[in-house]
């Protein structure tokens, strides 16, 4: 039968304690993400040759970029599963798990079959030395075979978040990354496997992560609904899932285009400015990781309220999670105001880059508070599966960003570029905020 956690999910009062119970494990989990890259770099760095370091870094970036495109599977699954939970449709919750596992596995198999053109395109966009490219090929040839596990885990993660089981998500992240780190050190330093050793470590860890994820979802497999094929392949359900995921994918691609173009435009202002912007953009990523927990809480709680057609409950979920989002955003701004210079110094030893980064630090201090609404409303709209609004408002915001870049960057230089990025955050929050009343009306 369905687990006790799923049985009570969506029930009970909405409190600050409940929001924190969902959010804090995600914040802790996110803190472990950069640790894996640091350890992999440090391990191959002990080989005394720069080529393996470059190969592991380039190979990881290629796969991360490809997998990132499937992030919609996590976001879409949270909203759909949370709404099924709110509607007390336990059969749909179980069937949805089967669907996301099938999509994740199918997408992973497709990547395996397409690995040659994917690698060729990646190396064409980012060429390297012959030695590095050979090592990248050996790395990706191994790692690509865990693609089905890696992508399916997006769906499992979303399914668990919808049930407020973020403690399980944390356990999954810690076990997978911990195993990856231990195997990487053993295979590279102990058995001298070199770059393939790092790839095998990740391969084993990702399949082990999938096995653990399935075990964490085991209660759903205790009832027949997960293999009710008429329900699993229901045309209306599949079409809705496809529409939700397509909207999220377009929104995410536009957001990625904004960040990528930001760095491309920065390159026009010289190497020092580009390096300074690369340092400062890390502050934005750090803030996003800190905010994720509360955005995820909004996804789960708003989704459950939408499924139950409880507009007052939806409003309270949006309000409580947004209060905490604002607290975190303000806290990050205060942190960057007091310690921004120190953080810059830790990230680079170049005095000219340090000085350049400090010139634009005020934009970073303002960004968390300005961006807070956009991050939290993303979570709210994902939970409500109002993904068409997310897509359309992102398109409007991106157009505004492009216009501001074209007007201000030529006359205000890098300050104009930062103004455009901060304006993008503000526009996303404003446009989604204007669509919020319609979201509440849909919950009645």
Describe how the helices and strands are arranged.
Layout: H1 4-8, H2 16-45, H3 50-68, H4 72-86, H5 90-113, H6 115-125, H7 130-143, H8 147-162, H9 166-190, H10 195-216, H11 229-232, H12 235-267, H13 271-307, H14 311-347, H15 351-359, H16 361-383, H17 387-442
Structure description:
The chain is mainly α and 444 residues long. It has two domains: 19-233, no CATH class; 246-444, no CATH class. Helix content is 86%, strand content 0%. It contains 17 helices and no strands. It has helices spanning 4-8, 16-45, 50-68, 72-86, 90-113, 115-125, 130-143, 147-162, 166-190, 195-216, 229-232, 235-267, 271-307, 311-347, 351-359, 361-383, 387-442. Helix 4 (72-86) runs parallel beside helix 13 and helix 13 packs antiparallel against helix 14. Residues 1-8 have low confidence and may be disordered.
């Amino acid at each position: 039968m369905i687990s006790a956690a799923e049985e009570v999910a969506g029930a009970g009062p909405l409190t600050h304690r409940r929001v924190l119970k969902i959010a804090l494990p995600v914040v802790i989990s996110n803190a472990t993400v950069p640790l894996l890259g640091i350890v992999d770099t440090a391990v191959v760095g002990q080989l005394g040759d720069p080529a393996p370091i470059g190969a592991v870094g380039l190979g990881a970036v290629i796969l991360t970029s490809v997998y990132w495109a499937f992030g919609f599977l996590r976001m879409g699954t949270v909203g759909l599963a949370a709404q099924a939970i709110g509607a007390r449709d336990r059969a749909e919750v179980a069937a949805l798990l089967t669907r996301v596992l099938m999509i994740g596995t199918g997408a992973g198999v497709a990547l395996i079959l397409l690995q040659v053109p994917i690698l060729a395109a990646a190396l064409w966009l980012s060429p390297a030395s012959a030695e590095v490219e050979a090592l990248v090929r050996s790395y990706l040839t191994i790692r690509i075979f865990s693609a089905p596990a890696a992508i399916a885990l997006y769906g499992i993660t979303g399914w668990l978040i919808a049930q407020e089981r973020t403690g399980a998500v944390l356990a999954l992240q810690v076990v997978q990354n911990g195993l990856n780190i231990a195997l990487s050190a053993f295979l590279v330093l102990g058995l001298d496997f070199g770059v393939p050793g790092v790839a095998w470590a990740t391969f084993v860890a990702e399949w082990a992560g999938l096995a653990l994820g399935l075990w964490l979802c085991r209660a759903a497999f205790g009832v027949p609904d997960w293999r009710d094929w008429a329900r699993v392949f229901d045309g209306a359900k599949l079409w809705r899932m496809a529409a939700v995921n397509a909207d999220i994918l377009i929104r995410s691609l536009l957001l990625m285009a904004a960040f990528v173009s930001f760095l491309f435009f920065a390159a026009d202002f010289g190497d020092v400015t580009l390096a300074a912007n690369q340092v400062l953009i890390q502050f934005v990523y750090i803030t996003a990781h800190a905010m994720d927990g509360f955005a995820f809480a909004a996804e789960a709680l708003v989704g459950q309220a939408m499924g139950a057609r409880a507009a007052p409950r939806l409003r309270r979920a949006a309000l409580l999670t947004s209060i905490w989002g604002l607290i975190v955003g303000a806290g990050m701004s205060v942190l960057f105001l007091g310690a921004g210079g120190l953080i810059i110094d830790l990230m680079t030893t170049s005095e000219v880059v340090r000085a350049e980064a400090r010139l634009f630090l005020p934009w970073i201090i303002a960004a968390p508070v300005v961006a807070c609404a956009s991050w939290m409303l993303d979570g709210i709209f994902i939970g409500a599966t109002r993904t068409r609004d997310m897509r359309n408002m992102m398109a409007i915001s991106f157009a505004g960003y492009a216009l501001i870049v074209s007007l201000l960057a030529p006359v205000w230089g890098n300050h104009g570029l930062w103004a455009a990025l901060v304006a993008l955050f503000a526009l996303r929050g404003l446009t989604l905020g204007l669509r919020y009343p319609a979201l509440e009306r849909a919950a009645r």
